[in-house]
């Protein structure tokens, strides 16, 4: 059974939908209550048994690296006070995980960001988390559900999908496929379209920010042409593998918040706040 050891976090984007907040602060450091989005992502990767976190960053994202390093001065200042436990969770992550970093020099799309991470991955399947898609589930995390499915289909890439309203499909990569035998939520993908109009969309099953990718994706990305905006799309690279029957789309159990949008970010804060204040 192939084990997923590494999770890639493409976090080099500018987060322009969240300006001016993201002018100096990385989008991934915006907090849901007191915890930044990137920490939720790392915790989800850990819940799937992963302990190497490979970050594709940019020179503007130093705060992400700082978040996953010890801060002796703050620790000394809260030691022996009621605030001492507030750093426990992140310190646990720092102790358990290995963090690696590479810079994406220019914003050339998610596919390019993932290709930039090749040097951090090695010759093995790996997970990808886009931390602005915050996923939560009472039972197995979304990434754990996906690693279990990948174990049954080790030659395939797995993409997480969600049914979105038809009018919203133009924000996503949309899949077409057929259910695997005996499955209610996993599709063999035949086609994928990046940001279609509702009229062009084959379904409303939209790809969200969780992937398990086989190493084969890097060879495909190497020859994937940029789109009309000059961006290399991971959807285009996955389509090449889908045509070979090597992509499975998985409709996960759980809730996703699009925290890259103000609406999703507020909804996530409201959801976690109501849980926190009722506990
Ligand atoms: P988004 O499409 O959400 O872009 O990228 P963005 O820059 O983060 O946000 P907006 O749209 O300007 O508000 C999806 C994911 O891909 C990463 C982003 O950091 C985000 O995690 N990404 C995107 C890169 O790492 N590099 C890129 O060139 C593009």
TrEMBL record:
GO BP terms, alphabetized: UDP-alpha-D-glucose metabolic process
Keyword Nucleotidyltransferase: yes
GO molecular function: UTP:glucose-1-phosphate uridylyltransferase activity
Top-level enzyme category: transferase
Gene3D superfamilies given in the database record: Spore Coat Polysaccharide Biosynthesis Protein SpsA, Chain A (3.90.550.10)
EC number: 2.7.7.9
Domain Nucleotidyl transferase residues, every copy: 12-273
Pfam name, any one: NTP_transferase
Keyword RNA-binding attributed: no
InterPro entries: GalU_uridylyltTrfase_bac/arc, NTP_transferase_dom, Nucleotide-diphossugar_trans
Signal peptide span: none
SUPFAM superfamilies reported in the protein's UniProt record: Nucleotide-diphospho-sugar transferases
UniProt keywords, alphabetically: Nucleotidyltransferase, Transferase
Reaction(s) catalysed by this chain's protein: alpha-D-glucose 1-phosphate + UTP + H(+) = UDP-alpha-D-glucose + diphosphate
Its biological purpose: May play a role in stationary phase survival.
PANTHER family registered for this protein in UniProt: UTP--GLUCOSE-1-PHOSPHATE URIDYLYLTRANSFERASE
Family, as annotated: Belongs to the UDPGP type 2 family.
Name of this protein: UTP--glucose-1-phosphate uridylyltransferase
